[in-house]
Amino acid sequence: MDREQSHGVFTGLLRRDLKLAVRAPSQWLNPLLFFVIAVSLFPLGIGPEPNTLREIAPGVIWVAALLAAMLAQDSLFRADFEDGSLEQILTSPHPMSMIVAAKVLAHWFITGLPVIILSPVLAVLMSLSFEGWWALLLTLLLGTPILSLLGAVGAALVVSVKRGGVLLSLLVLPLCIPVLIFATAAVKTATVGLSIEGQLSLLAALLAFTVTLSPIAISGALRATGGGG
Amino acid sequence: MWDWFHRLGSPKYFYGFAGALVPWLAGLCVILFAVGLYLGLVIAPSDYQQGDSYRIIFVHVPSAWMSMFVYVLMAIFAAIGLIWRVKLTAILATASAPIGASFTFLALATGSIWGKPMWGTWWVWDARLTSELILFFLYLGFIALQTAIPDRQTAWRAASILLLVGVVNIPIIHYSVDWWYTLHQPATITKFDTPSIHLSMLIPLLIMAVAFKVFYITVLLSRARAEILDRERKTHWVQDLVRSEQI
Amino acid sequence: MSEFFHMGGYAAYVWSAYGLSVAVLVLNVIAARKRNLNVKREIKKLGTAVQ
Lengths: 229, 247, 51
Fold this sequence. Notes:
The structure holds three protein chains of three kinds. Chain A is an all-alpha fold. Chain A has helices spanning 2-23, 26-46, 50-73, 78-82, 85-91, 96-125, 130-157, 165-172, 177-191, 197-225. In chain A, 83% of the residues lie in helices and 0% in strands. Chain B has helices spanning 2-8, 11-43, 57-84, 87-119, 127-148, 152-184, 199-231, 236-244. At the B-C interface, helix 3, helix 4, helix 7 and helix 8 of B face helix 2 of C.
């Protein structure tokens, strides 16, 4: 009974957030556009030589994805904080981690998933080979949820800070470094035709680790900062 | 013992206790620095590979050690503060942050100065320097978050969660940077570390490390005193104390 | 003595590293003292204003 109820809260919140995103497309469209524009600036700044592009592609795409994820993070709890619904959620009897998981999953759907869907286009823009693109896709699949989770920790911490976007990046970007390192290494290794199982399992371990621990941090942070309203 | 510990937790008692301790610690600190510098700069022989440039180790390594030690200590304060709600932990961690950040800066700067004669350039993306740089960012993040939230208690609770998240992530970041470095390591670069350190170099290094630690405690206690006055400004004992003092 | 300051040709590096260290440590002490003084001044000013 209790479990069923929590389940209802989870899907309810998820559906609500997705509906809001559909109604206000700029929320997810703008970071996505930023991502595409940022990536396409690099060939213009560095030169169109395909070998050079291939060399820098993993780093460029991943850094751009990181920055785009940070851009969208700021709004994760902001609206709920300002209209008071966050306080209601905090005082509701449902397990906090369930609520947090729904919010983060919704966030990943509207920021992580579009980036993954767009990855073939970016691979073509940056002259990545098929193997490179495939590795990029896999690393994005494993890595973007980590970014969403870490970003949510930051978003919860700065929820009461006006114009907390830059602060959020300052807090969260250093924590994202392992993801960046393992993911770009995987794509690079794949482009020279070697196995990337090692890097992928490291990313998967990182994902499992983040999934288990960050909900605790996020709910703790929300309790610390969001309660007062 | 427990009783004393509990009393130490009260800001008023701690203020007096720290005030009594600071002059002694400062004296000890001066002595340790004098001995360490004398042994390190005068007595220790020059390195057969690096010449006298290796002497930077006596400030670089202690500050690098302290930069990590202070961050971990701050995280411990954060954990204690979150679990037992001891007032003092917020004061100690807040007072630690600028000192720890300055140690991190020092480790970076001296590492870079050391790198110039060793590598021929001011900055190399060496694993240790890179980790230190990321640690510096973590310190700055902590300070920025705490100053961004106006309410002191909220700021401290948010910052302590950030500290705990940071300290859990530090080993992962460290490992990934090490891994990344071995992946990209250029063959021509001479390795930074001294393979087997001679005793005549190890002793001054350890003395300097202790000197840095004592220095940290001294500055921490005097910063914590200011912090206590600031937070307890409405209480009678602070008002009386300040009024009786000539400034 | 001059040999000591020469540091086997690495004088510029060694002494700038040590100079910087001294600067950082001294600044730490000064900052702590200044904060102490400022807090006390502030409290004194506000305290007398109340009475």
